[in-house]
Amino acid sequence: MANIHDYKLIAKKSSKYFDLLEIELEKQFPNLSDLQKERLGFYLFILENLTDRKEILDLADIVTDTEFNKTIFDDNFDDYGIDAVYINEDEKLISLFNFKYREKYKSGKQSLNETILSTKFINALITENHNELLSKSKKYAKEIIERLVESRDVWKIQLFVVSNEDFDLVKDSNIIQLEKVYGLEVISIGLNKISEFISLRPEPIDAEIIIDNDAVMSFAESTISSSKSYILRLTLDELIRITCDNKELRSKYNIEKVSELKDCTLDFSVLFDNVRGLVLKSKYNDNISITLKQDPTKFFMYNNGVTITCKDVIAEPVNANKKVRISIKSIQVLNGGQTLRTIHSFNSLDEKNIEEYLSKAEVLVRVFKASSENKLNNSIAEFTNSQNSISSIDLKSLRSEQLQLEQFLDEHNIIYSRKSGDTGLDERKNYIHKISMERFGQILFSLKGHPEKATNQKKLLFEKYYDIIFGPENLKIEDSPKQITRYFEIKKVYDSLSGKFEVNEQKLFYLIYLDEHLTAAIEDKIELFERIIKEFKPSSGKVLADSRKLIQLQFKDYLDKELGI
Fold first, then answer.
1. pTM to 2 decimal places
2. What domains does the chain contain, in order, with CATH numbers?
């Protein structure tokens, strides 16, 4: 269970996000208290982990909270109970957020029943009347209504109720009515779930196991290799023990009563290198729980198992060679993270579960010795996870070149965010920028002459085009700080002209491309580019919005011809 230390870590993390916002805006807010900065940064921290947006300014753009916009952007409007709105075009998902940031930690469950405030905004959606809304609230309500009413696609609506306390969302008749009438799903996110977002470099997690000879198989790459890996058949209560947050229990291989494990909780440090983030609700997780209750002895056959890497694994025969004692140093679970989370959650539901179900179920556990100095750790994670529905972007975050970029850019005070929640390798350092792996990939692809593909083919950047962008013969890591800094310089100038031109990422990628080929002031390049957009007429004769023009190769060819590129 989360505690006051998790509360303080979340506050620190939230404060870091506000610092990053000040850096990107190049603006200071000296009149704000530390608590106010934490509260506003909390929005960005949570949104990065619950949406697929990672850039600080992109996250700030989807915040609709009254205080946030009044303080940061001097834009005062009623948020109508919705503090952030995110529209996911790929998954046809509309996410609404209601935040509550508590100033002081209180132990024990609290009650949070303020969700009904959100009905003001939701009513505007249902009645298709956004006349009373202003600014961002009006903008996002209008966009949602267009998708719900005019689109032929089926859209799902979620309402996240988020608080930095350990709370129960009391579903009174009003909330139940919300779910029934509006067809939306209300999801509560409290201190326990938020603590799982925190990405802190972990202390090594070690464990000791004793198992029967027939439950272990060793593997070596060659007959002369001294480095061995192991495949184990472990009971789930043992898997819980070696991954729990109790150091004494992890080394207590001779535990006699499994009831000692009933209060164990997962040490999330073991998931630091796991590519799959927190999955809040999953049919897969439900199936695990059902199998454990209905047929625990068949769990081994139904589950793909868990893959662990470690810095060292030592096996020695004991008990007259009838058993094997295995010592594992610095455990990281690279595959099977959802299985691990779910069985720990199942254990916490009822103190009898550990003895009646978990001790009777077994799972396949692969233990590989893979030092941090080589590529094996990353390859194991990529290939064992590629069998499951994990995005190609997440898988590529484990590649050695991505880790090298992270390290190299850190030396230049730039945060290279390979996964959600990254706020730098050194919490004490004052960073100048934060950029996601995806955004940098889009920048590099634009620089290579493909700005028209950088936006609408983001997934392909980490599949079909990955080697063209990040391959050893194409990636010049020494140029990355300059490329990122230039991107933010261009973005700053373009944003300053937002009253004159509509600014979006598509246009920025084109400007990055033009910046490589034209010698002129950024403002002049923007003016020239905007004129060419207006002049372009597609061969089909159709009237297209600028966003549709920019993804056409025909427009890219027209641009190159006009500018002699």
1. 0.70
2. 4-195 (3.40.91), 207-390 (no CATH), 394-563 (no CATH)
